[in-house]
Amino acid sequence: MAFSSWGSRPDSLASLEDVDVEDVKEGVSQRISPATEETLQQIFQDIDRDHNGKLEVVELQEALNKLGLPGNSHAYIADLLKQYDRNHDGSIDWEEYKRYVIRKERIVQRTFQKLDEDGSGSVSAEELTKSLRKLWMSVSGEDSERMVGLLDIDNNGQISLDEFRRFVYLLPESLVTPTNIVYALVDSSDWIEGVELRLCMTPPKQPFQRLLAGGIAGMASRAAVAPFERMRTMYMADRTQTSMAGCAHNMWKDGGVQGLFKGNMATMMKVAPQTAIQFAVYDTVTDAMLRSMASVESASGLPASKQLSKWQHLLAGCMAGAAGTVVTYPMETLRTHMALGGQTYRECLADVLRTHGRRGLYKGFTSGVMSSAVSNGLGFASYETGLSFYRRFNEGVSPSPAERGVIAGVAATLVMAAIQPFEVIMRRMQVQGREGFPVKYTSVGQCGYRIVSEEGLGSFWRGSMCSFMKVAPSIAAVRFVYEALIQSWGVGGLRKYRVREKPSDLPPWM
């Protein structure tokens, strides 16, 4: 299947997306006709193979696998049960099924009508091809016929509304939007046919959603830990700070409550794009690695890999950290200057430019990039390792966003202890030349040597307690907010269920 990006976003794409807005507000009080209810009940009974009035896990798996959906994914089954299973008995009865599908019936019907351009009541391969082109996807007639064949139960060469319903109501709720439904259909048709390019199904809006989620997560977490961030910076950059109590006292003297948050605006301006870039680059690089592996393994006749190695996660994390720092490093320099007190953001910028020129915004750049690359590489790799351990000791169950936050916080604490020397060197390089901070270091290496020879090796961990108090909750909050947002938006589509788990991770009852 080939994919091509069109030069401009077609107006007809908006007509497909406008289904989302109104139906977000839909409620369980929505009514359906007796004929529609009878149809839905027939779909329910077709899945309920033993006719006991409940859709159990084995039955759901069978129905999912027939449609090319990830029936062997514990996370996928768990998400289906979460949206259906009101009494938490591990199955779905008719009333639970009806309660959910009635809420989604309007969006299903209106999405189907958008695909059914001639209003015939069924979707042909030609109509599907046109709809996919509206989503910047160029597909062949054979590709569209395969997608139609996936849902075409009566073998008439077209998709009816009932056949469309069978597919959509087995999707997780976050994917029941017009664009996500179409991409799920593309992914499923490729998956069931064994096409190795299946991992490239990415809606054009998802990169933006990842950037937005990362930015929101970064700002929310840093606002909560701003006082610890300033204390940490002062400890590392100013060797005259000798205790946390004394440092906190000086911060309070520098403006009361506002003094605790001095430099936070610069931090927010830096963290929002940096976190957004880091998550977006990391996800993009790991996706590219998976596609590359799938292509190579397909050519070699080997089964496609579903997971990256720890070294690949480490490399992707290093690239993400370096990319975020390269873009936002001037903000980091200004934040360090403001954290030492006495100047506003504008005054700091003017002072740095007047004293050192534009190059002054990049003092300590090498150490900063190294620190960010190493810390992010280790952070992402250790986080992925933590997820693996979690699944191993929880019978293959994937952690919730809150649990992912805890795992990320623990991983960040371990990483922080390892990269603290790079942080100290970067802070010293950034502030030298400022009033009260004479120029002492000519290079990153010379700075590190003098710190060890004059202050001892332990100086590299100055402010480490502040770092741990700040970093663990900050990273935990970033990961929690990010995962919660992308999960609610359906970012990653079906792909996230296909590449995160191995069959051996699944519990015995699956």
From TrEMBL:
Residues 35-70, 103-138, 139-174 form the EF-hand domain. It holds the Pfam family Mito_carr. It is a multi-pass membrane protein. InterPro entries: EF-hand-dom_pair (IPR011992), EF_Hand_1_Ca_BS (IPR018247), EF_hand_dom (IPR002048), MCP (IPR002067), MCP_dom_sf (IPR023395), MCP_transmembrane (IPR018108). Keywords: Calcium, Membrane, Repeat, Transmembrane, Transmembrane helix, Transport. PANTHER family: SOLUTE CARRIER FAMILY 25. Belongs to the mitochondrial carrier (TC 2.A.29) family. This is EF-hand domain-containing protein. It comes from Coccomyxa subellipsoidea.
